[in-house]
Amino acid sequence: MARLNWSPSSLPSLKKRTYIVTGGNTGIGYWTVHHLALHGATVFMTCRTEEKGKAALAALQSSIKQSNPSITPDIRSVTMDLMSLRSVREATTKILSEITQLHGIVNSAGIMATPYAMSEDDYESQFQTNYLSHWLLTYLLLPLLESTAAASNEPGTVRIVNVSSIGHTAAPKEGINFADTALTGSFTFRRYGQSKLANILHAKSLHARYNRATTSSSNKILALSLHPGNVDTQLNTQSWGAALVPVLRCLGVYITPEEGSFNSLWAVASPQVTVGISGEYFVPVGVKKEPSKLARDAQLADKLWNWTEQELRSKGLLQ
């Protein structure tokens, strides 16, 4: 069970701050957007379709106004299909045309243990949705994150948060199968585990690049990965093992999607997060936990970063 000893009500005012949350139309992404906007931030929420974005935006604005009539939330929906790297690049270009500062990214969207499928870019669906597309989004936004950190008079406020999972422990024995990232002959949860391991390794690589001892405190970008808790979302009903969901609900195993957003909110906006804990992995809420041995492998993290950069550059996506 999650240690819900923290609440978004403890967040400070986030006025004049800007955040991006992927998968903001549902589940923990929705509630992450809700609480950031409730505290005054400008929030870009990415959604797979324009229709889903419009519906979520209307629901968020209505619920916030009903509970807090004095607040006019600044939430902006951006269509971004994570199964299309072209869509990710186009959405990022749109976001960059609208803002001059960015204080945080919450890479929250994901799919879990879904049937084998390939994206239009020829990558396995979980590996692309959960990892590759978020890597591309983050990479394209790094210059803006850097300039925001350099201009900030509050070191440590610029952050990248990767929503991983305890499921990262199900990754293959080599961690990332670079010869076959689709894990063609593997069990679907093995593919999920690989993608979630990649999320943690991505955060480790970002931390290594932006938190060196020689990096000035004002230029540091914090990078954290986390497990949101056992959250009762639509992922459970769309994945392998869905038949167990009603039983687990009766046993009280799950927390709500709103509670599932708490760890992300803590990581991206809480003053409790400092430079000293960047690069670490957390379980709810704000509890540092050692991930798997593979997730702590710095050489594997470097290899994954270099492989990913080479892959996406070869497709002309990083030019």
Give an overview of the whole structure:
It is a single chain. The chain is of the alpha/beta class. It has one domain: Rossmann fold, CATH 3.40.50.720. It is 41% helix and 11% strand. It contains 10 helices and 8 strands. It has helices at residues 27-38, 50-67, 85-96, 125-151, 188-210, 234-237, 245-250, 257-260, 262-269, 298-314; strands at 18-22, 42-47, 74-79, 104-107, 159-163, 222-226, 281-283, 287-288. Strands 3-2-1-4-5-6-7-8 form an 8-stranded mixed β-sheet, with helices on both faces. Helix 2 links the parallel strand 2 (42-47) and strand 3. Helix 3 (85-96) packs parallel to helix 4 and helix 4 runs parallel beside helix 5. The longest helix has 27 residues, at 125-151. It is globular and about 55 Å long. 47% of the residues are buried. Residues 236-252 have low confidence and may be disordered.
What count of domains describes the coordinates?
1
Largest sheet: 8 strands, mixed
Average pLDDT confidence is 92
Give the CATH class: Alpha Beta
Number of helices: 10
User: What general outline do the C-alpha atoms trace?
Assistant: globular
Distance between the termini: 45 Å
CATH H level, superfamily name: NAD(P)-binding Rossmann-like Domain
CATH architecture: 3-Layer(aba) Sandwich
The radius of gyration computed from the alpha-carbon positions, rounded to a whole number of angstroms, is: 18 Å
